[in-house]
Amino acid sequence: MHWRVAAPLGLGKPNALLNALYQRACADERLSLTLFTALSLTRPDAGDGLQARFLKPFLSRHFGDDYVDLDYALDMCRGRLPGNVRVHEFYLQSGAYLRADSVQREYISQNYTHVARDLVARDINLVVQLVAVRASGDGVRVSLGSNPDVTLDLLDRLDAAGRPRPMLVAVAHPDMPFTGGGAEVPASMFDLLLREETPQPCLFALPREPVDDTEYAIGIHASGLVRDGGTLQIGIGSLSDALVQALTLRQRENDRYRAMHAALDAGGESRALAQSLGGLSPFEFGLYGASEMVMDGFMQLHRAGILGRRAYDDMALEQAVADGRVASPLPPHAADALHEAGVLPDRIDEKQMARLKRFGLLPFEAQLQADDVMCPDGRRLPRRLDTSDARVVWSRMLEGRTLRDGRYLRGAFFLGSHDFYAWLRALDGEDWHGLDMTRVSDVNQLYGGREKLDALQRRHARFFNICMMATPLGAVVSDALEDGRVVSGVGGQYNFVAMAHALDDGRSALMLRSTRTAHGRLHANIRWNYGHTTIPRHLRDLVITEYGIADLRGRSDEECVRAMLAISDARFLDGLVAEAKAAGKLPRDFIVPDAWRRNTPERLRDALRPFHAEGLLPTFPLGCDFTEVEQRLLPALGWLRDHAEGWGNRLRLLRAVLAPGKAVAGEAEALQRMGFMQGGGIGERLQRRLLQTALRRSGRDQASRPG
């Protein structure tokens, strides 16, 4: 027997059911199990030493002691999958499997939108999915919850190809938010709908990450590219959180936000791009979200009143709104504008009645009669609107009505914090209807027969994605290392880059830190060349580092090189310039401008110092999952990590341990949180001394820095 199983990426996996299937295969070698999925989430390994002392209590509190990890994912990390089990993932938990050879061999590189297409040829015979259920007067309502992304496309493609329908098994989770739009499906879609008899553990929640000066600088630069009334796509992680916080400051603290831009952008290049592509003013019309992933940042943008532009699935209505001919609530004489725009037809029939009710242009209780439309308040509206007198009557009814069934956010899957899941569960009314979780083919591309409407809804789109490295010629590395080992996967990044080029007013913006530290050494993330590429240079567009924005679209190679060097770290400029000259991409007499020499971390810290002091750039802008004591411990543990790499750092660490300095405020509470009491063996005493040193040294460093 061969089980060929498909399961959603991320949150949509029924862990207990998958574990049962996996353990059954492990126990019977006559069975074979092949699993197609992505992003198999597992709790972080607590490790040992100081890391374990910090993580074990946090993981217990954050995930719960009864959380069910995916057994196959744990065995993948350990290299222990049995021979009769294969797991193919198209997107990996970032960096988790770099040394897992079998995972690297079984990885499938594909765009997110191609997953359903490629699964058709794999003879899938079982689909399993975590769902949300609600009781209603008509029975049970079912929502695909976090993951309508691939399942619906797969079923449609199998049917179109004449392939047999796989068995579909849903597992209801009591905490899974019930999302609407494309995610709500008939219960009859599933062959089995299972419910656990015992209380299930909580949903996997991502701990929110701290944001540093580098990330804030990138977010501030990026935020000026966003146009009021436009469209936004963002990913996950601290860079995205920094962008969200910058957009929030643009809305709520505009004077200080503009001051931040000026402090970071001495030459005015970023502000010039903001003037031509985006803006620095608060949002009047708001943004529409069209993002494969929905996460905490969209929650904050909605709460801040920024994620507020509604998109309507009706070409005439959407065009009228885009042109400014129609606004909600509807003004006086609205019928003339609506009729001229084609929203109101010449004659009302049953189909048009349903359409007008859907968008709030008629009350739900209105009834169609021989010559009139009867409203519930007794008013009669003429069925024909091809005369000005008829439109006057309609205008009296329409004045002040609010348009309905507009979407402020479309996504294919969601993943985030406990607070984010609680927000989703609490959505109701138009806030609930305005979030459309739907298939990935509806979000990540323009194909499917409604290209004109999609392009109109996604007007002035800004697709922000994160990458690892870039070249001065505009190629980008996001998913794998030079030797081909996969860090994560391309996911939907290529989709959004290509879509930005397909849209007349769309732009792709790839964000990266200009440097990284590995094994105690500083490395440049802007490299002349690299042995792997995710986004080819012919799709180059906008690249953002902490030092500014490079606009590469339609530029010559020399122009691209100059733009990328202008946002590179000053410590690596001379080497990059030498390589560019050797390749003939810069003239031999080129001299690095003095302004580029000021691209240093010290200048960033000085520029952002006053805004930290005002509390505008918090370490955890979207909320924090750590206690106050744990937040004091995080910099200390980071200081230890940085000083444990490389012999030079280790020698400095030894000197610091021998002379740790004076105790700092909160030190006793931090030691107690880490389980250190007086006494103990030599190993425990050494760990205690290391932590004391880190608390004192990192505290001193923090005192000399902003925030």
TrEMBL record:
Keywords: Hydrolase. Residues 416-580 form the Acetyl-CoA hydrolase/transferase C-terminal domain. This is Acetyl-CoA hydrolase. Coiled coil: none annotated. One of its GO terms (biological process) is acetate metabolic process. The keyword Iron does not apply. InterPro entries: AcetylCoA_hyd_C, AcetylCoA_hyd_C_sf, ActCoA_hydro, NagB/RpiA_transferase-like. GO terms for molecular function: acetate CoA-transferase activity; hydrolase activity.
